[in-house]
Structures are given as C-alpha cells and as structure tokens.
Design goal:
Elements: E1 4-9, E2 15-20, H1 26-33, E3 39-42, E4 56-59, H2 77-94, H3 102-114, H4 120-129, H5 137-141
Parallel strand pairs: 3-4
Antiparallel strand pairs: 1-2
Helix pairs in contact: 2-3
Length: 142
C-alpha cells in the first residue's frame, strides 16, 4: 500500500482522517481543519514547521525519546492510539486495503471511532439511517 494518511484528533473530541497524495501539504491540512486559536501538538516531522505562525504549535520529538512535554503535558498519544485502532481494523477485519479505496476505509474507520461511546444498536441504527440507495458495482470500481 502506498497511500499516505493524515489525521487530527481533538482532545476529548472528534477524529478526522484523510488520504493525501503528498506529505508536502500537511501544514495546509492542519490549517484547513484546525481552528486558529487551537493548540496543535505534532511529532517532529519537518512539514509541520511554520505552524507557529498561525497556531500555538508544540512538538514531541520521538527520535530523542520524548513522548510528552512535562508541565503542560503536551503529547500525541491520543492520535497514535487512534492509528493503532485503525491498523488493527485493517489487519483484523480487512487484512488488506487498496490505495484506490483508502479514503473510503478511512471514512468508515473514522466514523466508527467518533461513535465509539455509543451502544452497538444505536450505532447500527445511525448507520442504517444514513443509507441512500444502492452502491452499484460500476460506481464502486470507477
């Protein structure tokens, strides 16, 4: 699989994930999905440089053995936990997913993550309430 995924998780809030074509636009993804007054905590990836101009930006440097900032306790453990759940869903349920449909798989996994506190029956009813007709094979493979 060659797809690149990017995600953001609001502390005690919503997960957003996207299939992106290049890592060059990750800072733009943050700016497009995160409020300007939000605190943004990322890993040390260089593509996030410059976020301090628009956001309060903190980094956690895993390559130096840093996993949280003491004091204000900034960390990225929550988003890493979400990635862990998504990976387990791929390996345990789907076993393999195509790059072509990666965005669809991410949407389904993100939807499920954002409703993890719901009872199973309520989650199923919400899912069925969103069904709009049939997915035709031609549409699926287009």
């Amino acid at each position: 699989m060659t797809g690149i995924v990017w995600g953001a998780l609001e502390r005690n809030g919503e997960l957003r994930t996207f299939h992106i074509s290049t890592l060059k636009g990750v800072a733009d993804a943050v700016r497009g999905n995160v409020a300007d007054d939000a605190i943004v905590v990322t890993d040390e990836y260089t593509g996030y440089r410059g976020l301090g101009k628009t956001h309060f930006h903190k980094t956690v440097n895993h390559s130096q053995g840093e996993y949280a900032h003491t004091g204000n306790y900034y960390h990225i453990n929550s988003i890493e936990g979400a990635w862990s759940h998504i990976k387990r869903q791929i390996y345990g349920i789907h076993h393999w997913i195509s790059d072509k449909h990666l965005g669809r798989y991410l949407s389904e996994m993100t939807w499920r993550h954002n409703r993890r506190e719901m009872e199973e029956g309520d989650r199923l009813n919400e899912l069925l309430g969103r069904v709009e007709g049939r997915l035709m094979y031609k549409e699926l493979i287009a």
